[in-house]
Amino acid sequence: MIRCREIEIVDLDAIADLLANGFPVRPRDYWIDGLRRLAVRETPDSFPRFGYMLEHDRTPVGALLLIHTARCDGGNISIRCNLSSWYVQPAYRSYAPMMTKVAQRHRDVTYVNISPAQWTWDAIEAQGFRRYCAGLFFSFPALSRPPRDMRVEVVRQDTQAIDGLSESDVALLARHALYGCLVLVCRAADGRAFPFVLQPMRLGRISLPSMQMIYCADVADYIACAGAIGRFLVRRGWISVALDANGPVTGLVGIYREPIGRKYFKGPHCPRLADLSDSELVIYGP
């Protein structure tokens, strides 16, 4: 008998084994470390902490990992679900739609797929997903003029308060510092604070030393602070910052590329560009 059920704590080792076999480019530690992070992070009530699994004879034969996060959209709390990884053993692929249907059954939840393989695009669109990000813009921020008297501050995981930022903003920044991201606050001469979360980027055969923009409050903030951020990063060996985009970004020097970085969503709220906070990229890693 095949059944679909929520992944529980006791299943984590077996799920990590299954995914390591299904994605041989990822070591087992990649999966188990991410699952352990999910085990202790805050998850909205009534939603699965890890995702769903297909089980045959008490053995997992398929898994769909999910990351649910409560977010504030226009002053209202909504739920976003990152469909982060999907694998089913070949002999059981005909049962995969059962797992997918259960995982996407909530109409008031916004589902996102931020790392779809190209061969899955048609299937994703057939499920009702829409593209919201077409590519990546690889900016070279050191080529932007730095604002006068702007300081770049590094945020640590134990940071509890930052002048000019809300309690929720500080919690987001500290949480991502704990995940291993580079978290910065640019402090303008008038005291305003602009938060940024960056992460080293995997680019396959491309050797460009790049960071990926995981979070900023607005792309306009990055454009304004690019010069200061660029000089901070160059001193540490990073020359590019990649951010989600649907074309060249006015005000930045860089190169736009499609379809690398294509992303999809389904649900009531279209995700904002340059906000990948609490996603698979930080929970599991790039």
Automatic annotation (TrEMBL):
InterPro entries per UniProt: Acyl_CoA_acyltransferase (IPR016181)
Name the record gives this protein: Acyl-CoA acyltransferase
